[in-house]
Structures are given as structure tokens and as C-alpha cells.
Specification:
Layout lengths: L10 E6 L3 H12 L4 E4 L8 H4 L3 E2 L10 H24 L6 E2 L2 E5 L2 H16 L5 E2 L2 H7 L9 E5 L3 E2 L2 H14 L3 E3 L4 E7 L2 E7 L2 E10 L5 H6 L7 E12 L8 E4 L2 E5 L4 E5 L13 H14 L7 E13 L5 E4 L6 E5 L5 H16 L25
């Protein structure tokens, strides 16, 4: 880590936020020969991106697919490519792998939702297999019988996201990105429709272009530019259990709750969705409910050790889509925030899209759907 701040004031691009989104953008731009600096108010990659579960559900585009499906599908294709490239460049493995998933429904309502999800996957040509109780038990013998519908999704992937962030930090270093951990940004210097510098606790830093990628905290910096977006933190709590390896091998998901086996005996149980502002603490009720959920699905988890638990703040938006593109009124300021439950999954495509926009290249993806000034973006309707 360098500490010569003055030398680092000469960046082509400054990214504010060193989560998976900001680091991926920095990595991508640096690969294009652009000199990038990343500022984070804390340590790099320790917020939502660290706290997430790392699930990467299959996605494929089709003729007439909505913009969010196209975005997800493009990113899903990029994950193995990015993981291999990062490994080549750093020698580090981010744990990306195809682990498969079993999607379950436990009552009529969840069965209807699951059926719609399965249909959308099938329409996109994604393999699914409906499972009898016997077939489900063959695939995952530890699974309890507390479900009414089950499907296997063999193409479901996962990444060890804390490892991925370490790999991204190493790759950014290798590509010459300047990383400034522990340096909050709090304001801007402007002239007309250009940002001249970002103000931080370590002074002002000039650059040709600026990107706000500050996750759930992005609103303050954006509002200071007159860009008021309905972005808010949505807390998610996770419990990590430790048990014997191979107790379960696939992600097991029931609507928004899931078990994610890491392959070494660790199993994540997630997650809650709570609107509690910037409170990042765990609650005894959520932890108890998550453990209970896990035990109902896989009774043997009753004997697993509780290793730790944590919470993260997802960047939620009113319409569930991220904001990607220029900040209205400024020709050299960009935003990449609001990825809610999918920021890990969407990080590679976000980085490539932002890099194309910032270098004035034509994009093959319909990024207009993610503009800050899109319809409904400022309605503030509840999430
Ligand atoms: C429990 C949970 C489970 C999840 N599971 C998944 C999953 O399975 N798959 C998936 O794809 N996604 C998942 N997500 C969502 C995903 O983690 C987020 O969408 C993603 O991490 C957002 O990345 P980010 O870089 O925008 O935000 P963050 O990772 O929060 O990074 C933003 C960074 O900006 C910094 N910052 C903020 N303000 C300032 C400032 N003023 N100056 C400098 N720095 C600043 C912060 O310190 C932070 O490091 C999950 C999230 C949670 C909480």
C-alpha cells in the first residue's frame, strides 16, 4: 500500500467505493491503460460485497428479453472468464464453481412462485429437473422431507465472495490501480458541467472522470450533485455454520432464504431483508429464525457448530434495477450503484458497461434501462 497521497492526485479516473462494483470497474479500466484511483471510507471490499452469499444463478438471454435479463445473462457468461483471468494474473483462486442448486417450495404460495421462476428459466433454455422426494434424497441425502415441490438447477454457480474481493484487490494492485482505504469522500469541486475534484478527509483529488460506486451509501454523494435517487440500505443477516464436508453439496433455496455450502464443511444460512437504515447489527430473532430454517431443511444442521454471523447493507432501489451511467448535468461523472441482491453477480458486466460508456464506446447492452433519469427512478415508492 502506498502512502504518498500527493503523487496519486493525478488520476484519469477516481472511483468512490471499493466494493465489488468499484473494484471491478477499476480493474477493467486499468486493463484499458487508464490510471485509476479507488477511495473507500473503510477497508477495501468489507461491506455488502463481503457480506453476501456469492450465489450466481444461471441466466441466459433470449429474443426480446428485458434489459435486466440481458444484463444478468451477460454477466453470468463473464464470470468464468473473469475468474480464469484473475487467477492467471494473480495466482489466486476466487472459488468460483458450478455447484448446482435445489430449489424448493414448502407451501402452495411458494409453489406458485417457484413454478413461475422455473418456467422463466426453462423459457431461456436453462436446464431444470423436477425432483420426486426420492430423487431429491438421492441428490442431497441430508435434505429433510419438509417440502412439496423440488427442482434441480445444475447450472447454478457460486463464488467465495470474500476471496473474490481479495483477488480483485491484488489484481488492481497489479494493474497499477491506486487504492486508498480509510479515506471517506464527502463532497465535490465543480465548474459548470464538469467535476474538477473530489473532496476527501485527505484533501482534494483531481481526475478527468469520477464514478460513484458507494453501494448503499451512494445517495449522499449523489445528492450533493443534485441527483436524488431512491437508493436505500436493505439489511441482510447471515449465519455461518460449520459441519462435516459434503453434508450438502448444492445451494438449497426456498424463495429468498437459502443454504450455501462452501465445500469445506461451512454452510451459510441467509438471509433477511430489513429496512432499518444503516444499522448493521445482528438480531437474536433473525439469527434464531435462520438457524431454525436451516434445521427444518437439513435436520442434521442441528448438530453443526455456529461459527459466526454478520449483516450487510444491500444497496436497494425503488424499482429493483441498478443505476448505471452518467450523473445528469455532468459530463464526467458516473454512477454504478443500487445492485440490491445481485451486485456480485452483476459486477463483471457492470464494469465492462461502465468502461465502454466512459471511453465513449458503443455498447451492445440496452443500458438506457439503467439510467438515473429513467421513468419511476425518483418516485421514492417503497421497495
Ligand atoms: C446478506 C447478503 C447476501 C447477498 N447475497 C448475494 C448473492 O448471493 N449474490 C449476489 O450477486 N449478490 C448478493 N448480495 C448483494 C451484493 O452483496 C451487493 O449487491 C453488492 O455487494 C453491492 O456492491 P457495491 O460495491 O455496490 O457495495 P459495497 O460492497 O457495500 O461497497 C460500497 C463501498 O463504498 C464505500 N463507501 C461508501 N461511502 C463512501 C464514501 N463517502 N467515501 C468512500 N467510500 C465510501 C463503502 O465503505 C463500501 O466499501 C448480498 C448482499 C447481502 C447483504
Amino acid at each position: 500500500m502506498q502512502s504518498d497521497y500527493s503523487r496519486k492526485q493525478l488520476s484519469d479516473v477516481i472511483v468512490i467505493g471499493g466494493g465489488v462494483i468499484g473494484l471491478s470497474i477499476a480493474y477493467e479500466l486499468a486493463g484499458q491503460g487508464i490510471h485509476v484511483s479507488v477511495f473507500d471510507q473503510g477497508a477495501m471490499g468489507q461491506e455488502s460485497s463481503w457480506a453476501g452469499a456469492g450465489m450466481l444463478p444461471p441466466a441466459r438471454s433470449y429474443r426480446g428479453a428485458p434489459a435486466d435479463v440481458q444484463l444478468r445473462a451477460a454477466s453470468h457468461e463473464l464470470w468464468p472468464i473473469w475468474s480464469a483471468r484473475l487467477r492467471e494474473e494473480t495466482g489466486l483462486d476466487n472459488g468460483f464453481r458450478k455447484c448446482g442448486a435445489v430449489e424448493l417450495a414448502c407451501d402452495d404460495t411458494s409453489a406458485r412462485r417457484l413454478s413461475a421462476l422455473i418456467t422463466s428459466w426453462q423459457d431461456a433454455g436453462i436446464a431444470t429437473e423436477q425432483l420426486t422426494k426420492q430423487r431429491a434424497a438421492e441428490l442431497e441425502p441430508a435434505l429433510g422431507a419438509d417440502f412439496c415441490d423440488a427442482y434441480s438447477i445444475p447450472e447454478f454457480c457460486q463464488v467465495r465472495n470474500p476471496r473474490h474481493l481479495k483477488v480483485l484487490v491484488a489484481a488492481c494492485h497489479q494493474r497499477g490501480v491506486n487504492l486508498f482505504p480509510g479515506v471517506p469522500a464527502f463532497g465535490w469541486e465543480r465548474s459548470g458541467d464538469r467535476i474538477l475534484a473530489v473532496q476527501t478527509v485527505k484533501g482534494r483529488f483531481e481526475a478527468g472522470q469520477f464514478v460513484v460506486a458507494s453501494g448503499a451509501w451512494s445517495s449522499t454523494l449523489l445528492s450533493a450533485l443534485g441527483c436524488h435517487l431512491p437508493l436505500e440500505p436493505i439489511r441482510g443477516q447471515i449465519v455461518l455454520l460449520s459441519t462435516k464436508p459434503d453434508l450438502i453439496n448444492r445451494v438449497i433455496e426456498v424463495e429468498k432464504c437459502y443454504l450455501v455450502p462452501r465445500g469445506d464443511g461451512r454452510i451459510l444460512i441467509g438471509s433477511t431483508e430489513e429496512r432499518v437504515g444503516f444499522l448493521k447489527q445482528n438480531t437474536s430473532q433473525a439469527i434464531a429464525e435462520l438457524i431454525d430454517f436451516g434445521r427444518r431443511l437439513v435436520p442434521a444442521l442441528g448438530q453443526a457448530a455456529v461459527e459466526r454471523f454478520w449483516a450487510g447493507l444491500r444497496p436497494g432501489t425503488a424499482d429493483g434495477l441498478p443505476y448505471l451511467g452518467t450523473i445528469p448535468g455532468y459530463e464526467n461523472a458516473f454512477v454504478a450503484a443500487g445492485h440490491f441482491r445481485e451486485g456480485l453477480h452483476l459486477a463483471p458486466v457492470t464494469a465492462e458497461l461502465l468502461s465502454q460508456m466512459m471511453r465513449h464506446e458503443k455498447s451492445t447492452l440496452p443500458w438506457e434501462a439503467f439510467r438515473c433519469d429513467r421513468e419511476h427512478a425518483e418516485t421514492g415508492k417503497p421497495m
